[in-house]
Amino acid sequence: MRKGSPKKRALLPDPKYKDPLVTRFVNNLMKDGKKNLAYHIFYEAVDIISDKTGESGLEVWRKALSNVSPSVEVKRRRVGGATLQVPIEVRPDRRISLGIKWLLEQARLRGEKTMQDKLAYEIMAASQGEGKAVKKKVDTHKMAESNRAFSHYRI
């Protein structure tokens, strides 16, 4: 059995903005190990956001990520033969991970032609509190709220 959990490895900051969070986002965006392509897609999307909104694209992205990140979620817990959905608070690290995954998942499902456009428009929508990624967060919060009665079963 393992003695303690492994240490978290520090991510290198990205080349353009020198931000480790951007690297984390790009790592989730990347497919088949094509990191250069993922960086290209992200930077293009940030440029599109800057052109459309007139604000800093990176700041709009940060705002979108904070709007999408959930603060509570539900976990299944088996109690006396019944499976209950118990609301729990989300750890800060997992909060960011869920926000990134939901943002990319919904961006990939959009109807625009290129991934840069899909990502840019989903980020702009999320930064304004709209879009499917924000809806997923709201649905998660509603589910946790409706199962609040089971919160004393927390692990």
Description:
- This protein has 155 residues and is mainly α.
- The protein has one domain (20-153): Orthogonal Bundle (Ribosomal Protein S7).
- 56% of the residues lie in helices and 10% in strands.
- The chain is built from six helices and two strands, in the order αααββααα.
- Strands 1-2 form a two-stranded antiparallel sheet.
- Strand 1 (72-79) and strand 2 (82-89) form a beta hairpin.
- The chain starts with 19 loop residues before the first helix and ends in a 9-residue tail after the last helix.
- The relative contact order is 0.14.
- The model has no long low-confidence stretch (mean pLDDT 91).
Please sum up the structure shown.
With 155 residues, the protein is mainly α. 56% of the residues lie in helices and 10% in strands.
Summarize this structure as a short list of keywords or feature phrases.
globular; two-stranded antiparallel ribbon; mainly alpha; 10% strand; 56% helix
